[in-house]
Amino acid sequence: MASGEKGLRQSDALFSHVKALPEVIGEVSAAVSERLGGGYKIAAVGVSDSPRNVPGSYMPCFLAGVSAASSTAGLFRVPLYRFSHQEGHIEAALFGAGHCPSGSFYSFHLSGGTCELLRVESESAGVRRTASIVSKTLDITCGQLIDRCGVALGLLFPCGAGLEKLAMESVREFKIKPAVFPDGINISGFENKFLAMLNTSTPSDAAKFVFDAVFECIRAMLGAIPPSDSNTYVVFAGGVMSSSLIKARLIREFPSAASSGRFLFAPPALSSDNAAGIALLARKADMK
């Protein structure tokens, strides 16, 4: 992606996926062969085919993966299991956290395209999950806020790691209050505040402001969980949750939930990884 860009149009994303998939599949095949030798076989194929597990959820860029997965499953004559992108993130986070709640639970999905707190239920088959939105941002996502502010500082997209590195140089802690409405939260005003800060503050302080704003967004969304579910598990999934700053702040501000294991955190690699979750779900489905 060119310097200064903040993302891709869906048509460009689909084209990029189509171009990249042959090389990626070759790399995966070589890595699997090196690890398992020549004796392995493909038992099933899993793929994410939509953003969410709800009717009408669709984005063109998923067509590239579905095409490659369908071709692979057909070639090897094995089952093809379809899941949503969101289900993959949640499954990867649960695996990384080392615990899978037996009943319903809450999950954050915080990424460049999504900023939602979900109530998650297992479907009758026990593999797929449905999720209803409890709270969300109404304008931009936390991931978009981070990337837009990072690009303004000249960082390469995606900007999370670079912006967090800057933020760690700051010792400031900002008092921030998101705009909370009955149907969600607005956070785009934080981008304007950040841009204004660039004239009066150091880049590290401005970067720290962004991560403090994201934390306060999460805190406000946690407030949407009804008191009757105060002991229900909360999973933190999505690329934004690969931030050590945000995780550390959650542990510090919610010590009881963190120490009791009610808050479930994954390692950074599995917070941002959707494909691992899809593979785990496909394995579960194939073993049914």
What does this structure look like?
The protein has 288 residues and is α/β, with parallel strands linked by helices. It is 47% helix and 16% strand. The protein has helices spanning 10-36, 62-76, 85-97, 142-152, 160-167, 189-197, 203-222, 244-253, 255-259, 268-272, 275-287; strands at 45-50, 80-84, 105-110, 115-122, 129-136, 179-181, 184-186, 234-237, 263-265. The strands form 3 sheets. Strands 5-4-3-8-9 form a 5-stranded mixed beta sheet. A two-stranded parallel sheet has the order 1-2. Strands 6-7 form a two-stranded antiparallel ribbon. The radius of gyration is 20 Å and the shape is globular. The mean pLDDT is 93.
* SSE series: HEHEHEEEHHEEHHEHHEHH
Identify low-pLDDT runs: none
Largest sheet: 5 strands, mixed
* Range of strand content: 15-25%
What is the number of helical segments per DSSP (H or I, 4+ residues)? 11
Q: How many beta strands in the DSSP annotation?
A: 9
Mean pLDDT: 93
Number of domains: 2
**Helical residues, percent:** 40-55%
Structural class: alpha/beta
Catalytic activity: L-threonylcarbamoyladenylate + adenosine(37) in tRNA = N(6)-L-threonylcarbamoyladenosine(37) in tRNA + AMP + H(+)
Keywords: Acyltransferase, Metal-binding, Transferase, tRNA processing
Enzyme class: transferase
GO molecular function: metal ion binding; tRNA N(6)-L-threonylcarbamoyladenine synthase activity
